Amino acid sequence: xxxxxxxIVENIQDQTGLTKIKATETVETLLEIIKDSLSTGExxxxxxxxxxxxxxxxxxxxxxPATGEEMMxxxxxxxxxKCSGKLRDKIN
Length: 92
Prior knowledge:
The chain is of the alpha+beta class. It has 2 domains: 1-40, HU Protein, Chain A, CATH 4.10.520; 43-92, IHF-like DNA-binding proteins (HU Protein, Chain A, Irregular). It contains 3 helices and 5 strands, in the order ααβββββα. The protein has helices at residues 5-16, 20-39, 85-91; strands spanning 44-46, 50-57, 60-63, 70-73, 76-83. The strands form 2 sheets. It has a 3-stranded antiparallel β-sheet with strand order 1-2-5. A hairpin with a 3-residue loop joins strand 1 and strand 2 (50-57). It is elongated.
């Protein structure tokens, strides 16, 4: 099961005593800051959690899995995540 944005809002509400509206605004603001930074090509480092990086993918050959037809995939940017050592240790 995945942790949803609504559950994050509830957890913030419970742990800080903020109203649901304020907790929602806080989460939305944080996500907007992260999205804006990534869209400009900036990496986002959250100490003790991990790093979101924007990587450039080159044009390459691909294949449509439904038809098997070969095609060229265009250049694009993708977001990757590398967790911190602290997070890795906590997970393991």
